[in-house]
Amino acid sequence: MNKNDTYNYYPFQLKPLTYAYNALEPYIDEKTMQLHHNKHLQSYVNNLNDILKDYPEYQGWSLEQLLYYSHLLPSGIETPILNNGGGVYNHNLFFANLTGDAQNKNTPSGALSQAINADFGSWEAFKTEFKKHCLSVFGSGYTWLAACSRCKVHIVNTKNQDTILPMNLCPVMLIDVWEHAYYLKHYNVRADYIDAWFNVINISLAEEKFNSIKL
Ligand code: MN3
Fold first, then answer.
1. Which residue, among 214, 209, 198, has the nearest Cα to 112 in the 3D structure?
2. How many Å lie between the centroid of ligand 1 and the Cα of residue 36?
3. Going from the N-terminus, what domains does the chain have, and what CATH number goes with each?
4. Distance (Å, whole) CA 67 – CA 164
5. What are the tens digits of pLDDT across the range 105-142?
6. I need a labelling partner for 145 at 20 to 30 A (CA). Which of 103, 130, 169, 198 fits?
């Protein structure tokens, strides 16, 4: 991780979106994006800073180090760091993974496409399987497309603000399926939100991430 990436180090700050709050309309509405980014993510950032302010010895650790080596933290802060640090880590990935660019591709190509086709048959078949995973998250959590040096691509679910770092997997893309991500627009219908989300995934970024994982 780049030491110059200040968003990955204490004091943590709200990482700005690279697009407007209304850029994902009509798929993800402006109000949801504002609350999700300005309120939910900001709370995780604030909480994480509050926890670390009394622990200068851990303030130099990157966000990934805090999460990956959480077992080395004092027991009193391990769970709060996992919950709030995970909230920052997961949301930063989630928001970066979205785009309102009208030129956005809607299917992957290159190595990512080959890996998905090898494991799932086609992009459409992958979407069906991914959606099934999203719907099977009980309560709050995330569904990820992940990869590692041994498994080419893999769909995994995590609960609450858990990350895939302890699984030694690298994220390719992820969807936040907490109700706060969709309730204002889709009420309780998570399936509609997942269908909408597929229209605003930054597939070029997912390809870049996949290509950067040494397979
Ligand atoms: Mn969220």
1. 209
2. 6
3. 30-96 (1.10.287.990), 110-211 (3.55.40.20)
4. 10
5. 889 999 999 999 999 999 999 999 999 999 999 999 99
6. 103
